[in-house]
Specification:
The chain is of the alpha+beta class. Strand 1 and strand 2 form a beta hairpin. It has a five-stranded mixed β-sheet with strand order 1-2-3-4-5, covered by helices on one side. 27% of the residues lie in helices and 26% in strands.
Length: 96
């Protein structure tokens, strides 16, 4: 059984992760979303950094089903939930 955590954090931040918070998502008043990256997975952080100007790159991740790495799995669940934002490049990433 897979344990998934999605919870409401401070100031409307929706948290994603298993036993620790990997991402936080905040819906902004201008219609964009801000994804806060809290994990230290270097490979995934590098992919995110390379695609900051092109969030639609991650739209294909919506079909990602593997459970490893967790950082990729949870980002895929964010893409699924806010797919239109990724498609329209209305996503800002913040590396924490």
């Amino acid at each position: 059984m897979m344990l998934l955590k999605e919870s409401e954090g401070k100031m409307g931040e929706i948290m994603f992760g298993d036993n620790k918070d990997l991402y936080g998502v905040v819906e902004k008043s201008d219609g964009r979303i801000e994804i806060r990256v809290y994990h230290e997975n270097g490979d995934i952080r590098q992919i995110i950094a390379a695609n900051l100007a092109n969030p639609s790159h991650f739209e294909s991740w919506a079909s990602f089903r593997d459970s490893n790495p967790r950082a990729k799995y949870h980002l895929a669940s964010i893409v699924k939930r806010w797919r239109s934002h990724f498609r329209n490049n209305k996503v800002d990433f913040v590396m924490r």
